Amino acid sequence: MKLKNIALLLGVTLAISSCSKDDYERGVWLPAENPAEENMEEYQNGKVSLAYVTYYGTLIPDTKYITHINYAFAQPKMGAGGVYNGFALQGDESRFKKIVDLKDKNPQLKILLSFNTDGANGGFSALAKSADARKAFAEDCKAFIQKWGIDGIDMDWEFPGLSWSGNKDAFDTKVDVANHVLLMKQLRETLGTRYLLTYAGYINNMKPTSDGGMRYIDIAAVDQYVDFVNIMTYDIAGAPRHQSALDSPAELSDCNRAVKEYLNAGIKAEKLVLGIPFYARAHFESGGAIDYKNVLKLKASEGYKIDNWDAIGSVPYITKNGVFYAGYDNTESIAIKGKWAMTKGMKGFMFWDYDGDDAQGTLRNACWNAVMKKY
Asked: Are 259 and 274 in contact (CB under 8 A)?
């Protein structure tokens, strides 16, 4: 083991010394400071185990389970008339600094800043309509990356041509999909190849709307500008039961159909990262989310039963008084999804969000092992 670690460190040193400052160096994985656990799979170069870490979270991630962190969120500040006024981190900057400081312990950890928007004054829709605003935003992103020494940008526009809030000023089906492509193009041109650019993808490719416009993301057009896609294979809106089943014909969609949307659009499997929820989701109409750590605390005396198993969907679920209550993921479903995704040649897993796991790191350990295992 000591000789192996020395070889890894030498490989990192040689890789860093040979790369130019303008090239993004993916390198080899440098183990975290804490010793790996006996049941932890060895890192495979190029694979991704990505944690979304929120500004409102309280935990500092254990980086031995993670290759990438997407810090959520920052938001563009849009003024009246679609004027771009810079962007700002949500929450306390000291929280962000603590996350960035993790790179001191693990220099190979990649940290990206994730953007979302509340749609105020048009949000992403207004930002993307202006060439000047797109360029200014991209330049601000690059300056921020360089100031903090982080590794890239993750865009979470949910979604072009749509506003979940119903705010009609926050989307424009006529131009959003095309403008989203222009925004990603500008980001790539400004960031160059040194920095990562990713996005949170929907379970569908772009779709026509009833008013003759388009909705969601043109995944084929955006593909040339991004390093990989984080497919949000959870919170599948309208699903009557499972929020993140591997296969479930009764649901609105599932992991299998979502990935097929990307593959059918010509996206290579090695650019696809599958989303894993660290929470249970009940019906959107009748209930919210329950962090995995709190799923484990549900009491049989109150009518709950966890770890029921759906053999078709390959996922567990919760019942209350014998009736389906919420769908979620556990170590068994994550292992099954890992074998399915990695044998397809996919890049890895991402999960929302780090703080949802239990104190033992059960799910993040399962994600790491599912991704890094040699099948």
From this structure: yes
